[in-house]
Amino acid sequence: MRLLLNLLWLVFGGGLVIWLEYLLGALVLCLTVVGIPFGIACARLAGLALWPFGKRVEEDRGALGSGCLGTLLNVVWFVVAGVWIFLSHVVLGVALALTIIGIPFALQHLKFATLALAPFGKRIVAS
């Protein structure tokens, strides 16, 4: 069932477009030394955007992006890009939730919306 939902996500849920956007953002951010941590966060989001069903996000207290450094990176992320990414996922989620068939995809967009606000200090695990 997860495979079917992931394949439908790529075509109908906007997964392919979101994956390309996060991947392009990761590549552009990794061109600069200052942007490398943000590029890595975008790359993780791109990996989740490709196959979101069967994965969940949880806190990772032992990660390099947790603690004071993670808080600082999350604040910079939130101010520069997080709000806009959050709003785009919420709008897509609401639009997909208007159709009954799109509800599972809307829930995935809401998962992305919460992760887009503060991606540092979190890890993606299989559920």
Overall description:
The protein contains five helices and two strands, in the order H-H-H-E-H-H-E. The protein has helices at residues 2-12, 15-29, 36-50, 67-97, 103-117; strands at residues 55-59, 122-126.
Q: In terms of topology, how is this protein built?
A:
Layout: H1 2-12, H2 15-29, H3 36-50, E1 55-59, H4 67-97, H5 103-117, E2 122-126
Antiparallel strand pairs: 1-2
Helix pairs in contact: 2-3, 4-5
Please give a handful of descriptors for the protein shown.
globular; two-stranded antiparallel sheet; mainly alpha; 127 residues
TL;DR?
By secondary structure, the protein is mainly alpha-helical. It has 5 helices and 2 strands.
Q: Main β-sheet: number of strands, strand sense, barrel status?
A: 2 strands, antiparallel
Mean pLDDT: 90
Q: Helix-strand pattern, N to C? A: HHHEHHE
Rg result: 14 Å
Number of strands: 2
